[in-house]
Amino acid sequence: MDAGKRFSADEMLLDRQIFDADDQPLGKVDDLELTLPDGGGPPVLTAILCGPTALGPRIGGRIGQWWAAVGRRLRPSDEPYPNRIPLDQVGKVDSTRLTLTVSRDVLDADRMRDWTRDHIIGRIPGA
Amino acid sequence: MKRVFALALGVMTAIGGFVDVGNLVTSGITGARFGMSLTWAIVVGTIAMTLYGEMAGRVAAVARRPVFHIIRERLGVRTALVNLLAFVLLSLLTLAAELGGVALVLELVTGINYLVWVPLIAAAVWLIVWRMSFSVMENLFGVLGLCLVVFVVALFVLPTDWGSLWHGVTHPWVPPREGHPMYLFYAVSLLGACLVPYQVVFFSSGGREEHWTPKNLTEMRFNCVVGFPLGGLLSIAIMAAAAVVLQPLQINVKHLGQVALPVARALGPVGLSIALVGFAAALLAAAAECALSIGYSVGQFFGWSWGKDRRPREAPRFHLVCLVAVIAATAFILTSIDPIAVTVVSVVLGAAAVPLTYFPVLVVANDRDYMGGRVNRRWSNALATVFLVLMVVTSIAAIPLIFFTKAGQ
Predict the structure, then answer these.
(1) Contact B316 A63 (CB under 8 A)
(2) B1: pLDDT confidence band, cut at 50, 70 and 90?
(3) A49 φ, ψ to 5°?
(4) B313: which chain A residues are within 8 Å (Cβ-Cβ)?
(5) A28 with B302: Cβ contact below 8 A
(6) In terms of Cα–Cα distance, which of B224, B209, B219 is closest to B3?
(7) Are B211 and B310 in contact, with CB atoms under 8 Å apart?
């Protein structure tokens, strides 16, 4: 990335594939978390959001609502706020991919995968 | 020697991968009804498939990502979603047609109604998806699918009037008993059969399953440039066999058995058996590829782990999608809807959706972020654009033609 060059989140971040430290796919950048700093000033990017609860609202409409609802069911205590990956766990970002500094297993960011594995696929012989 | 063998194997799998239920049915029907006058549609479809197949393969080898892995970030989440939904629905229809096709072949062999076979075949397809290694799947079925070469042999054994076949190829007029809409409908169906959207998703994702790198580019190109046209040639041979045997008898093809009739006429029961083995292998492989492609496309849209080279536990959602796809297609074909009608409608609807699948290939193959210096050359972009325009025209015409001709009745 050229330092000082301006770019938009859409050009550089949204919908990029996320890989973890072991080069395993984790998901896509489904949305971004922006925070207003305490002292005022422009919003700052604080985390990458991923999973159905982040993607649903971006798709919008019935399908989006439904997808977000699926995601909510899989969140602990129906927590509607999506999985966040804080920026300090994000390593390299370029225009084609985003690489994390941690393993996806540490993050607990993908309950849908775990649920599908534990409840359906893992029970089929030969999995 | 090993290298020659690998190249030959690649070509054979490309031929096997090209021919599926859509090609068998549309070639049989059109040969019997229109003689060789629609050959041009197969030629155009095959050239377009070769061109776009090469691009999709190149993206997989150079960007190390299949085309559909990249669509969402390049075209935006909503466009990609529309694309995905259209692709999945269409591929379910194709999958149902392939399952029904294998069942019809088994009905011919055993005399037991095809509906009995459908669940068993679906189970076999799912087992291929679940357990069989990617290369075994490709090579085994690719080679078995080559049994379809009996159609070429049959043409030489039959009293084929080559001059009149060639006359049909070079004089693409509408036969006197048929109307223009019907002729165009079947032209669209042949184009759709050559350009089935799942093929490009499968080819590109398969490149990742086999870990292609830029070193494999020559091999991949050879597979495309030799394998796909040979597959097209096989479709033309099936059409020609139908034109020689079925057209004079005015047989309207309603069953896969009738497509194999010219071979039985020329080569007797042995020839027929070989043709049926070829049918079953090509369709079974196509069914598995279709189911996998549905899993690939959904997994790649969401960025999940996907693919057969991972254990199912490591790509659980990918395998769940494949499983659900097989179940849904099975349920659909078990409604006793005519598999041949499903095939014809699926290839024509496929032709309507073709630009959705092929346009992103063109976009990504020109993306320097991913492709570096290996983006499309100017001439290939020019050619690809011509074909894309043709695909758009075809796609606009497809749905009105379905209604106007009552799906070719």
Answers:
(1) no
(2) low
(3) -110, 140
(4) 117, 121-122, 127
(5) yes
(6) B219
(7) no
